[in-house]
């Protein structure tokens, strides 16, 4: 199972930089970068804090996909 996020997309909606978001949720900018690149899985508290700042739900912010779903999607591209 893989996870992708909509953090970058939603940051843009609210005109927030990685630094802005990081400051609002009390983490380093690199943490936001790693989340956006899928290199880091957040704690439940961090996921909640980011969702709150971006005015969305955790389910809308983090999308989990079965590996075969990802493969099927790439087959159609």
The count of strands amounts to 2
- Mean of residue pLDDT values: 89
Oligomeric state, counting identical vs distinct chains:
single chain
Helical amount among residues, as a percent range? 55-70%
CATH architectural designation? Orthogonal Bundle
Provide the β-strand percentage band: 5-15%
**For the record, what is the CATH homologous superfamily label?**
lambda repressor-like DNA-binding domains
Q: What is the overall number of helices?
A: 6
Order of helices and strands: EHHHHHEH
Instruction: Give the CA-CA distance, first to last residue.
Output: 20 Å
The general outline is: globular
Strand order of the largest sheet: 1-2
What is the CA-atom radius of gyration, in angstroms?
A: 13 Å
Highest CATH level, the class: Mainly Alpha
CATH domain fold name: 434 Repressor (Amino-terminal Domain)
Query: Structurally, how many domains make up the residues?
Result: 1
Summarize this structure briefly.
The chain has 77 residues and is mainly alpha-helical.
